[in-house]
Amino acid sequence: MANTKIEFLVKAPHKDELYLVGNVSALGEWNPAKGVKMTYCEECGCYTASKLLPVDTNVEFKVLAGKTWDAVEKGTWGEDVANHAFVATKGTKVEIEVYNF
Q1: Strand, helix or coil for residue 70
Q2: pLDDT tens-digit profile of 65-96?
Q3: Most exposed among 19, 56, 73, 92, judged by the fewest C-beta atoms under 10 Å?
Q4: pTM for the model
Q5: Using the 8-state DSSP alphabet, how is residue 21 labeled?
Q6: Which fold has domain 3-97?
Q7: What strand order describes the sheet that includes 36-37?
Q8: Distance (Å, rounded) from C-alpha 51 to C-alpha 87?
């Protein structure tokens, strides 16, 4: 199966480290210890990461402010939020906003 480069841009409260963790091996298969570390971009004010993912795969993920589920993203009022989901297709850029951890 062919892969395609997926770009992730996450606007979030500033933390020392942010990680992506999700349902595919490139995103750690829901294991926070295998999460993908994001890089903070001063220029755009977002955390960024790029990964090669299998084309036409249904991808789900969450953002963590550390390599533990205790640091999973939350909604505006601290509530749990649904997984982010998309289908990996060529040129996909995933842009989300995280309100709390």
Answers
A1: helix
A2: 999 999 999 999 999 999 999 999 999 999 99
A3: 56
A4: 0.94
A5: E
A6: Immunoglobulin-like (2.60.40)
A7: 36-37, 19-22, 58-64, 84-87
A8: 14
